[in-house]
Specification:
By secondary structure, this protein is an all-alpha fold. The chain is about 80% helix and about 0% strand. It has ten helices and no strands. The model has no long low-confidence stretch (mean pLDDT about 80).
Length: about 240
């Protein structure tokens, strides 16, 4: 029986993205019309309400050894490297690219539209990429996605017009979804039938490490955001050898 791991992962990514497409635009409108305090209060309220459904779910616990987990973190080095790079790229896409858009175009609404366009790219391209990943080698798909996403990051260094920025936002969203699906599918295949908690903690650790590494690199680069784009492009290329 053929599994549909990629398709299921794509659905889990695409549906939330589809329903959140308007979020960046709404946030930009609130920020422009009412200021940051209103946006901050809205986000805090939504965050508090989002906790309520958790109380309606069951609580499942499994055995966990912190000392064993420390040794387990060093296993599957290539997989750990993939998650580290994915964490770096997620921060660059979610935070640094929108900052660049604002500094270049000078409009919060433009940032909202660009992020929304990226969301469209992820939502509608993700499902197709997920079905494709069930038919082709996932590591080959990861390498193709890494090469294409690297090209997008290097092109972003030279972006200056609204059309270029919106187009690169769309392409970035599309190829980011290819990477996320292929890397997560590889992870599921590795962890299948093993101690899921150990593998999940390892995955989250390296994703978090990548999210920490990215801001450190940017602090070292100072105000040169394009240098961060070059770093993201090189990080993406590393997926070709992992």
């Amino acid at each position: 029986k053929r599994l549909h791991v990629g398709e299921e992962i794509a659905t889990s990514i695409a549906l939330p993205r589809l329903f959140s497409i308007a979020t960046p635009i709404i946030a930009a409108i609130i920020l422009t019309a009412f200021g940051f305090p209103a946006l901050f209060f809205t986000l805090i309220s939504l965050a508090l309400f989002s906790v309520i459904p958790l109380f309606a779910t069951g609580d499942y616990k499994t055995r966990f050894s912190f000392l064993r987990q420390l040794s387990f973190l060093l296993k599957s080095r290539s997989h750990s490297g993939q998650q580290l790079i994915l964490g770096i790229l997620s921060i660059m896409e979610a935070f640094i690219w929108p900052i660049f858009i604002f500094l270049t175009l000078g409009s919060l609404l433009d940032v909202g539209f660009a992020v929304a366009i990226s969301g469209v790219g992820i939502a509608f391209f993700t499902y197709m990429a997920g079905k494709l990943s069930d038919r082709v080698d996932k590591r080959t798909m990861m390498k193709i996605g890494g090469l294409a996403y690297s090209l997008v990051w290097f092109l972003r260094i030279f972006a200056s017009t609204p059309l270029e920025i919106f187009l690169l936002s769309l392409l970035g969203g599309m190829f980011a979804s290819v990477l996320e699906i292929s890397i997560f599918s590889i992870f599921c295949n590795i962890a299948k039938g093993k101690n899921i908690l150990d593998w999940t903690v390892t995955r989250e650790f390296w994703l978090g490490a990548g999210r920490v590494v990215a801001p450190i690199i940017l602090l070292l680069l100072g105000s040169w955001l394009q240098g961060g784009f070059a770093f993201a492009g090189l990080a993406s290329l590393l997926l070709l050898v992992l």
